[in-house]
Amino acid sequence: MTRRRVLAAAVFIAAISVLSCSGGPAVTAEIMNHSYSRPDEVVTTNMFLDLDVDFDREVISGTAAFDIKNKTGADKLYLDTWALRIVRVTLDGDTEETSFELGDSLPVFGRPLAIDIKPHTKMVMVQYETTADARGVQWLKPVQTAGGKHPFLYTQSQSILARSWVPCQDNPGVRITYDARVHVPAGLMALMSASNAKEETADGVYEFSMPQPIPSYLLALAVGDVEYRAISDRCGVYAEPGMVDKAAWEFADMEKMTELAEEMYGPYRWEQFDVIVLPPSFPYGGMENPRLTFATPILVAGDRSLVSTIAHELAHSWSGNLVTNGTWSDFWLNEGFTTYFERRIMERLYGRGRSEMDAMLGLKEFEREIAEEPDSLDTALYIPLGQRDPDEELGWAPYEKGYLFLRLLEERYGRERFDAFLTRYFNTFAFQSMTTEKFVSYLKKELFEGNEKVMKELKVEDWIYKAGLPDNAPRPKSDRFEKVEAQAAAWVKGKPASELRTKDWSSQEWQHFLSKIDQPIAAERMASLNAAFDFSSANGEVQRSWLLKVIENKYEPAYGELETYLVRVGRRWLVRPLYTKLAETDDGMFLARKIYRRARPGYHSVTVSTVDAILRWKG
After folding, report:
1. 524-561 pLDDT, tens per residue?
2. The one catalytic residue among 154, 265, 399, 565
3. Is-catalytic flag, 313?
4. Active site residue: 313, 342, 356, 509, which one?
5. pLDDT in tens, 414-432
6. Does 1.25.40.320 match the CATH number of domain 479-615?
7. For residues 322 and 427, is the Cβ–Cβ distance under 8 A?
8. DSSP-based three-state secondary structure for 487
9. Domain ranges of the chain
10. What fold, for 3-225?
């Protein structure tokens, strides 16, 4: 375990609170696949939710009813919970109350809910409510939203946070269909990873249906003052009123992306592809909830420079949502495939030069990670998590190493044959779970045609199970980056920033430029650089690259900008490097803690757990 993970685990364990909701003896339940559920004995197949959202109490309450299949004649159904208050459990149509027990709370996993059932039980109904410790629920005051008039709620279920707002078999190997009825205050709209209304209802009651089976981590709910803008018959954007038209313009290529994706790997099977732009505290760039991708407002940059994230979440509709990693150790089967697919979409839409720059930036991040911990199995594709928290930031390997492995296969067999292989893969395993072992077996049979020599030649075992990057890894190349490097070298040698050739540079080129001026920079040169290019008005990713230079060079005139950014932006991937860099010096740590005290209340628990560990936060 790395120092970063030790710190994260220590802070996380210290934050656990044990709730006693049922009385009675503790339940002993085995933890498999980061879950207490035992789907090999009894499995949930469909769920109906009837929920009330109470902003005054900051509580979600109601009933979760499950259709179950008892495979073994077992006398208990096991569900996962995290800090939920279980009120009552009944069987088969709310007519027969049954006993239940909640086990002890364990770090990472929460508490098992063991429900007494009978061999013939067909439905289990759990009445419950969330508590203040719900890690997957973010309640926002009006002041924390763009509009400033109404509160906002959103959930984040990946990886194992669904159990904090719905008792469920929180296991990526279990898929369910679901329907829901959600009651919210009048004037607000409720949206889920399901069929959604396009306008507010008069009574604040919303009905949902998800007929395709999904794993629990794709359960999602958002409630707020939002409006809808259609981009096509099946694509559109939800956002707060002041943001919605900007977002619709930013993501205008969603339909084109979907059509290109279908041309490559077959029909889009989720009927609707919408995006909701959430408030800034959302901890990720995007979350691929089916039918309703959740997105950070950072993506609304005003120049469509960050839409690769939308392509990424769309690609998950095949790799992840359709064919799902069977365990969180197999995460690369979701993210590596999706990163590969994303870049193929971006290449088709914006050209090879754009996708190669993205690939080079990703590879650079991954190589930096390898340099920090060259022997860590966190840089393998299959990451043996054991009982570690899968919501830790696992790093770049699932994304970038996964992408490069698939690119290696493409380059070996050619695009036409490799695309045909991927299409068969998605069709063969649609709405199923996939493990690394099962994928390798399929790869051997369908692409390698049983040729074991190819396995050794391509070093498949090294790619999947060993640390680092094999020496046969493809190397992305960008002529545009070479030109950027020439300008960076000229500036380092003293050429004024105003004389550099930067016309029409993309976000990727600006990030690469800033990464190449890595020697100490005097304050007056930092000032001239910012005066020439005004990085404070750049998109969120370029601004982060600039602020890293601000920290490295202790450029105090930009500390106000740094604080504003860290308070405004809640995306973990953007803020983590800044806090990490600040924490390298005593002065930086003091400044980081000062800023974090102000920023922390607006962050999601996913970002909080990461930054708490970096800053050794004690409150």
Report:
1. 999 999 999 999 899 999 999 999 999 999 999 999 99
2. 399
3. yes
4. 313
5. 999 999 999 999 999 999 9
6. yes
7. no
8. helix
9. 3-225, 323-465, 479-615
10. Immunoglobulin-like (2.60.40)
